[in-house]
Structures are given as C-alpha cells and as structure tokens.
Amino acid sequence: xxxxxxxxxxxxxxxxxxxxxxxxxQQWRLSIAVADAGGHLLxxxxxxxxxxxxxxxxxxxxxxxxxxxxxxxxFEELLAAGRSGFLSVSGMSLLEGGIPIVLGGECVGGIxxxxxxxxxxAEAATAGLAALLERQR
Length: 137
Hints:
45% of the residues lie in helices and 20% in strands. By secondary structure, the chain is α+β, with helices and mostly antiparallel strands.
C-alpha cells in the first residue's frame, strides 16, 4: 500500500487565511474553498459582501483543480479555443481561479476562489497555496 499525503486542518486554515488576507488587502470580496484530492470540501470562507453564487463556483473550482490535477485556467483556455465538449462534465468549473495543491509531487487537493475577475481569483488562490508551501518547509 502506498501512503498518501493529506491536508490537515492546519494546512487548510493556512490556505484560507492567506487567500482571505490577500483578498482583503486588495479589497476583493471572495469565496474561498479548499478540497481534498477527491474534490471533497475541507474548508471554506465566504467573506462579507461576497456573492452567494461565488460560494458554489469556488467549490467547483477547487474540486476541478483537485480531480484534474490542473489549474482551471487550462479548461477556460480550451473552451475559448472551441473545445465545448467540456461543458458536458457535471460539476466541473471551466473558469480560472482553481489551482491544484501538489506536495512532494502528489496532488493532495485544490484551492478554488471566486468573486473577483478570474485572474484575481487565481491570484488569491496562489496566495493561499504559497502559505501552505511555506508551512511545509
């Protein structure tokens, strides 16, 4: 049996806190989700003033990044290039703002952010991932 790495509650808290602090600094109102490798929700923050819809989108971005092991920007670019077949995949987000969490070469989850522009969502997600990677050092 191969042991798998997992995110613990402190890892999740670090991701959420860092992404949320970055958003506050930029005056963005975001929803931020962290999922495990199976796309299951581990932690979530919906900042004051964030759109209710952003909550669903953030989780879909986290799930998509975790399950695909790719940034969701990849799927947004495919869709823009005319690859509309991805629209048929249930629960998948085709919007930038989801990034996989890779530790030691293994994808252990995903971070999804929604509520600002897609590049801003990705920026906040990256801030969350950076805090986790720093914690792992």
